[in-house]
Amino acid sequence: MKKHLVILLFVIAAIIAGGCSSMKSRNVHHHGGPYPGVRNLGENYSESDWGAARVPAMILDLPFSTAADTLALPLDVLK
Question: Structure pTM?
Answer without folding.
Answer: 0.67
